[in-house]
Amino acid sequence: DGGITQSPKYLFRKEGQNVTLSCEQNLNHDAMYWYRQDPGQGLRLIYYSQIVNDFQKGDIAEGYSVSREKKESFPLTVTSAQKNPTAFYLCASSGERGGLITDTQYFGPGTRLTVL
Amino acid sequence: GENVEQHPSTLSVQEGDSAVIKCTYSDSASNYFPWYKQELGKRPQLIIDIRSNVGEKKDQRIAVTLNKTAKHFSLHITETQPEDSAVYFCAASSWGTALIFGKGTTLSVSS
Questions:
Q1: Closest residue of B to A6, CA-based?
Q2: Are B27 and B48 in contact (CB under 8 A)?
Q3: What gap in Å lies between CA B86 and CA B69, rounded to an integer?
């Protein structure tokens, strides 16, 4: 969905460095999500946030951190504690659409992170 | 927590044939079941979804069926075309929770 943007599209990191992935949405959605995608593994939930200043761990939160200071933004930090961070990272959001509250999730274009 | 199993992992069909992908879920509280299509290097796109108060939903060549008693739901694509080739993901959630995805099915449609 064009209302969700992620940057950068490609990101390279040296081992031992923290890196932050950006996710912004202008859909006025309350909920935002981060997923990690590896070949053959589907989409695995890292963190999600249903409201500003609140977030919950997903299935694979270890080595990641998030913040939700603004409704529009949900940045993800990949820390040096994440042992295998090379993956495709997808952000999504859900909320009101067409005047109705819906749990349908819409995805951003993704960030491909490679550890060198 | 919720666990979603998806089968098959790969599916090859001839153009014009039908394709069926099946998913099972574990949490009886789940009430929302979307299907996403993802082309190589792109974001997943919602193609159809179904809620627990409905048994079947159709949208042109695509249909989804839900059996809440057995906790499984299926995607049916009729009259497949080469442009249907992609990875398809099923997912499940209950209200206010995040989607949990299956591992995906790579569909190849040959002409």
A1: B43
A2: no
A3: 30
Q: Does B105 touch chain A (CB under 8 A)?
A: no
- Selected residues 26-45 of chain B with any CB under 8 Å from a CB in chain A: 32, 34, 42-45
- Contact at CB, A48 and B98, closer than 8 angstroms: yes
Beta bridge mates, B11: B107
A9: which 2 tokens? Answer: 């599209």
Q: With 0-12 CB in 10 A as exposed, 13-18 as middle and 19+ as buried, what is A44?
A: middle
For the record, the structure tokens of A89 come out as 């990272």
Q: Which two tokens stand for residue B96?
A: 């206010």
CB atoms within 10 A of CB A92: 27
Residue A60's nearest CA partner among A73, A45, A50 is A45
B107 touches B11 (CB < 8 A): yes
User: What are the start-end ranges of the H helices in chain B?
Assistant: none
The pLDDT profile of chain A, 116 residues, written as one tens digit per residue, is 559 999 999 999 998 899 999 999 999 999 999 999 998 788 999 999 999 999 999 999 999 999 999 999 999 999 988 889 999 999 999 986 655 556 789 999 999 999 98
HSE of A101, CA atoms in CB hemisphere, 13 A:
5
User: Rounded to whole angstroms, how far apart are CA atoms B82 and B87?
Assistant: 13
Q: How far is CA B73 from CA A108, B5, B103, in A?
A: 26, 10, 15
